[in-house]
Amino acid sequence: MRMIHLLAPLVFMFATSALEARAEGRCPPGQYPIGGKGVGGCAPIPGGEGAATSGPRATGKWIKTWGAISLAPSGASGSSTGRVRKTEAVEEAQRKCAESGGVGCKVTITYKNQCVAAVVASSGTGGTTQFGTGATIESATEFASRLCASKGGSDCAAVYSACSEPIFEEF
Question: What is the pTM assigned to this prediction?
Fold first, then answer.
């Protein structure tokens, strides 16, 4: 009889611990059961593993910027850089070309979030202006110089370069 009195608390402990384990057993780790009477669900344990997290949050956004170059047959030119809209860059380049005495100005290149270079050959058949774009002024100039040389120009030299870099706007 004394043995039964000693075993009774142990049996009770095992029975209740098994029920507790079964109660959370239907939910994934880090969640606990909710609901009852046939309508159950799981909810995250506050601060526990598996609790819903929103992850990293953006602190702002990048805004692309545009640049443009306009040339007139007479050699007059105008440029624009760092404009939020392409149309703004084009209008500014056209206006600057006309203000410098250009007649019949035409936009020859537009670009966004990058650099541009204009290269002219001092001799040879590559005498027209060649343009190149790239991540840096150096890469844009190199591209335009290769293009100038491939068209028969020699002593190709950069006459203009600029970058139109994106702007970070914080929320």
Answer: 0.65
